[in-house]
Write a structure and sequence with these properties.
The protein is an alpha+beta fold. The chain folds into three domains: 2-118, no CATH class; 127-311, Sandwich (Jelly Rolls), CATH 2.60.120; 317-388, Phage tail protein beta-alpha-beta fold, CATH 3.55.50. The protein is 34% helix and 29% strand.
Length: 389
């Protein structure tokens, strides 16, 4: 009974693995009506003190149950959503009968979710990326805050994020329940979405995502910069909404940046195929190594081929700069190290620089490396970096 309760709680949060779903189905099937009723009633009481559901709340719960069942039904099993005959009563309805309906639907939904999970191919991260994730956590740079029902909770890894996301999770459905993950001005964060998609959120960025992807698409909203390792699902495209347009694809790797230039969105495709659609425009299909630029008022993206190295390097713990100004270089490093920068002259500000740095190295070796290349004098005093001849 105790194990079943834990699995049911994980189900309500949308966090069951394929193996756990199989165990849960078997355990629910072996329980007596009284045992199942008592267990579900215990879970219900942890979420509400109401003994009777009025008509308005009943209709809301009914809608959630229907959406959950329809959203999880598989094309391979067209009868799955019809396994239970559901009636919508007009009188006030007791909690106990709703618990029975929910319990039956749980078994149906769990079975169809297994079919859904089998058709999704989760991304495989390289050893370099995995090592960078470990470095980010060890260095203390893997930090963000998740907003749940108006409450902001600090998180430092996926375990703490999973715990924070439990806040406000409803019993009958997790579909449509949005969370907002925000990184600080000098941190990043690695996370895994419900479908297995991995997201690397850069500093000063914001991702809006649902606890559970329902329906025919998987949609998130981004402000800032993020790298996506998308789980492949041929039946449900992954869509990223940005201020200037949308990015749609079926399983690939790409980088999106809406932060560096005000009002400009840059999308770089690393591999696979994606479609980019500007506001009020038509979809443009990108090829690997393409960069698409979306700007306000433009109905078509500006597309060009680029060296993708700088756009993937930050995922493996490296900053790469190619013929950029010292001002552009220090804008990134000042955010990362939480410093202010003072340039002695405009000439120094516009000096060109090419090189790369270990993201997780302390600031002193990084400043020494810049000094060795440019010959400039670089001093670090508390929160300030002063650059002069």
């Amino acid at each position: 009974m105790h194990t079943t309760k834990i699995l049911l709680e994980k189900y309500m949060q949308g966090g069951l693995s394929k193996e756990e779903l199989q165990i849960l189905r078997q355990q629910v099937g072996n329980m007596t009506d009284i045992e199942l009723h008592n267990l579900l009633e215990t879970l219900w009481n942890e979420h509400t003190n109401d003994e009777v559901i009025d008509e308005t709340l009943k209709q809301k719960i009914w809608k959630n149950i229907a959406q959950e069942t329809q959203g999880s039904a598989s094309a391979e099993d067209p009868t799955a959503a019809k396994t239970v005959r559901m009636e919508t009563p007009t009188r006030r309805f007791s909690v106990k009968r709703w618990l029975r309906v929910a319990a039956i639907l749980l078994v149906v939904v769990a079975g169809t979710m297994l079919l859904f999970q089998n058709r999704v191919e989760k991304p495989q991260l390289s050893e370099a990326v995995t090592a960078a994730i470990e470095q980010a956590e060890k260095s203390g740079k893997n930090q963000a805050a998740v907003t749940v029902n108006g409450k902001t909770i600090p998180v430092t890894n996926e375990k703490s994020l999973a715990s924070a996301q439990k806040e406000g999770t409803h019993f009958f459905s997790t579909q449509g329940q949005e969370r907002v993950l925000t990184t600080y001005h000098n941190t990043e964060f690695w996370m895994t979405l419900e479908d297995g998609t991995r997201v690397h959120l850069n500093y000063g960025s914001r991702l809006v995502y649902p606890i559970h992807f329902g329906g025919d698409t998987r949609e998130v909203e981004l402000q800032g910069e993020a790298y996506f390792f998308v789980a492949k699902d041929k039946d449900r495209p992954f869509i990223v909404h940005t201020p200037n347009g949308d990015v749609k694809q079926y399983g690939t790797e790409f980088n999106i940046n809406t932060r560096d230039e005000i009002g400009v969105t840059r999308i770089v495709l690393v591999n696979g195929s994606i479609g980019v659609t500007a506001k009020s425009g038509k979809e443009y299909m990108m090829k690997p190594n393409d960069m698409a630029i979306l700007q306000p008022g433009e109905t078509e993206p500006m597309v060009s081929q680029v060296d993708i190295t700088p756009y993937i390097a930050w995922n493996i713990g490296t900053f790469v700069f190619e013929d950029c100004t010292l001002e552009q270089l220090m804008r990134v490093l000042s955010h990362w190290y939480n410093k202010r920068v003072q340039f002695e002259s405009e000439e120094i500000r516009q000096m060109r620089f090419t090189g790369e740095f270990d993201k997780y190295e302390s600031i002193i070796p990084t400043m020494k490396a810049i000094h060795n290349v440019t010959g400039l004098r670089i001093e670090v005093h508390g929160k300030d970096i002063i650059i002069s001849e």
